[in-house]
Amino acid sequence: MSSAFGTVRLLHHWLERSACEHGDRIALICDGERINWSTLGRHVEALATVLRENGVQRGERVAIFLENSIEAVVGIFATLSVGGVFMPINPMTKSEKLAYMLRDSGACVLLAQGSLWKFSLDAIRDTPELRLCVVARQKADQAISGADGVRVVRWPECETNPSTDFPCRPQFAPGECIDQDLASIIYTSGSTADPKGVMLSHLNMLSAGRSISDYLGINKDDVIFCALPLAFDYGLYQVLMAARKGACVVLERGFAFPVKAVEAMQREAVTVFPGVPTMFAMLLALRNPEALKLPALRTVTNTAAALSEPQIARLRQLFSTAKLFLMYGLTECKRVTYLPPEMLDRRPTSVGRGMPNVEVWLTDETGSRLPFGSTGELVVRGQNVMRGYWNKPEASGQRLRKDRISGDMILHTGDIFRTDREGWLYFVARTDDIIKSRGEKVSPREVENAIHHLEGIADVAVVGVPDEVLGEAVKAFVVLREGVELTEREVIVHCRALLEGHLVPKHVSFVSVLPTTDTGKISKRMLARDYQGGLHEDSIKLNQADIPNE
Prior knowledge:
Layout: H1 13-21, E1 26-30, E2 33-36, H2 37-53, E3 61-65, H3 70-81, E4 85-88, H4 95-105, E5 109-113, H5 117-124, E6 132-136, E7 151-154, E8 182-188, E9 196-201, H6 202-216, E10 223-226, H7 233-245, E11 248-251, H8 258-267, E12 272-275, H9 277-284, E13 299-302, H10 309-318, E14 323-328, E15 337-339, E16 353-354, E17 358-363, E18 375-382, E19 388-389, H11 393-399, E20 400-402, E21 409-419, E22 425-430, E23 435-437, E24 440-442, H12 444-452, E25 457-467, E26 471-480, H13 488-498, E27 507-510, H14 524-532
Parallel strand pairs: 1-11, 3-4, 3-5, 5-6, 6-7, 10-11, 12-13, 13-14, 26-27
Antiparallel strand pairs: 1-2, 8-9, 9-19, 14-15, 15-16, 17-18, 18-21, 20-21, 21-22, 23-24, 25-26
């Protein structure tokens, strides 16, 4: 890709190009602060100078333990600009898990937030390779000190001169990375085993960012709302795509108060709203969601989990000016598929086909390709496929295998899909989520879709629970909309009218909220674990910080 700036070969070139070509345009809006691309570039330079002065070398890992903020974005691009590998870590991560990630990655620098310093300090005491902490947004009276051997400095101030242009870099800088070098390590899972660090090169991330921003039609006039954590690749790519196009991102720390979030979208005339099903369920559960008008909105996107047909219909009614993109992806390759909005009426439960520059197909248990109209594991081939899991060759080998035809390394997702006769994809289940009841396989998604057709359902999750006779019994956890009352029998009778016998839930429990991971996905592992542990369903009112990342 070329422009007046030159060839974009590395991820941070997007930021540098926007700073040169769109310098006066607003890049970020966060906590009432507005910063343009040129000024953002200067902040990146200031932090990059600190990293260089402290000896950060090409390929070294820099952990970013910050809430959604301008500093988090600065940390990402400053790390890249000195040749480092950025590691975004969710700010809700506890000390023990943070320490594991720092040790496992061999991180040499931690960019931390003052309000998270206690967790940071507990973690770095057991991280021998860490040598520098840069602390942002600490209180004036807050004591910032480090463990032995770790230098602690405050976030650098940045003097800006609006009349001076951002210094554009030469097209090829001596000693600079190549696109095969790692750009990021994003840790995922960790709910049943140690977290795995997904290794992504500059080429991986440039390829994914180009494909997604192209099919979404992102442009420099867009205002993108991002309440998704930047440690979640879905949130991270909102910033990366904005940097590619010179668009604006409205950064929020979360979506706990949906009315306030919508007010922010109205105030900033947001045009792009990326969300996950739990966020949309919160909006649709409001007493009068139709009053939340967003006239500037043109694009709504969903991934992380599938929306039900009733949810899709209500979202399209709520956001009547916007196109709704249903998508599927995973951290190991960022994004895989999308459904063009014009196909929603014909295939409302599909996640589409492979996105540009990505090939997908289904395989059976022997690894053989399956024809259209089959059910099997989804396999992905493309430049977006990860380099592997950091320090985990065995786990990498389970996911990455050599393609018999092309010789490329292809990604076995572990997700079960079916295709129709024309090759459109439909998510069935994670391999680990399949319920085996009465000797037959049950897709939780199929049961959830049926329950969503019952009037008054705000959200639902279906899991398998131990049963002496059935092996596993189907259990549904249901969240009702405000003012709605239903009984277990009513839900089961409704399911019997729509589903085969082995798919009908044996148990239904009503809960006030479903537990979610720190990326906003419903945590079925947590539901199943709590049920087996004998917890009363009404006690499933968990804070996200208490829930492991899936």
